Amino acid sequence: MPGAPFGYHKTMLEVKDLYVSAENKEILKGVNLVINKGEVHALMGPNGSGKSTLAKVLAGHPKYIVTKGKILFNGEDITDLSPDKRAKLGIFLSFQDPKEVSGVPMLKFLKSAYNEVKEKKLLTRQFKNILDENSKKLDAPEDFSTRYLNENFSGGEKKKSEILQLLTLDPKLAVLDETDSGLDIDSLRKIAEAVSEFATKEKAVLVISHYKRIFNYLKPNKVSIIVDGKIVKEGGPELIDELEDKGYKNLNQFHS
Question: CA 80, CA 67: separation in Å to the nearest integer?
Fold first, then answer.
């Protein structure tokens, strides 16, 4: 791009002809996907279509083997990078089913992650101020930071825990895997507002969901539909309404 600063890429993430297997089963079968800076990108598809697999592959989960294709992040090939190196580059994954970690308070866990990813060494008091400020954005309980990570959390609290991690670690690309599942309306609205505030022109968000509900609050710029391990349709937010109306089985009836 003439006149642009060195290293500038409008495209943040590019997935090229990606084939992925796990336990000798092919799951992704030639995925092509582009996510630009400043974009909220919706990825939708039926159960078993490969949505969560793609999310985990982007984060570098070792269970999934890339057999063909590439993943580029800000122009850099990260296909073979470890999860910790991807995190340092600015890739964050919010899990569909966050795990409980007994004996590790949220504050301690997140401070350690922050210091590692950001390569900074904040004092506990400094970090707690950041955590408290972000917790207020989510209407999280006052004792959130002192509780063990996700232990005895409700489904909604686990999802707020994931978004609290997102806001605190402040990555470049957020991959949110079914963050809306199990949320009541108030929690869904708060999380959507927080994610909308996070999504600036220098960042990007990939939101994975089955349903339209979260997109009533979090407006996507682009929608991709994945079926049987391939992106089969892309378009604007109107695709979500068509999916709601016609379902995945009638994709050939959608407007191009």
Answer: 11
Domain locations in the chain? 11-253
Contact call for residues 137 and 197 (beta carbons, < 8 A): yes
Q: What span, in angstroms and rounded, lies between the C-alpha atoms of 62 and 32? A: 21
Query: For 92-124, what is each residue's pLDDT tens digit?
Result: 999 877 787 889 898 999 999 988 888 778 888
- Kindly report the CATH number that applies to the domain delimited by 11-253: 3.40.50.300
Q: In the Cβ-directed half-sphere of 41, how many Cα atoms lie within 13 Å?
A: 25
Give residue-wise pLDDT tens across range 139-162. 888 888 889 888 888 888 888 999
Helix axes 155-169, 106-118, angle to 10 degrees: 30
CA distances (Å), origin 163, targets 61, 197, 204: 20, 12, 15
Q: For residue 244, which of 207, 205, 216, 206 has the smallest C-alpha distance?
A: 216
Q: What is the pTM of this model?
A: 0.90
DSSP string, 131-165: HHHHHHHTT--TTGGGSBTTTT--HHHHHHHHHHH
Structure tokens at 10: 């409008």
The number of residues making up the chain comes to: 256
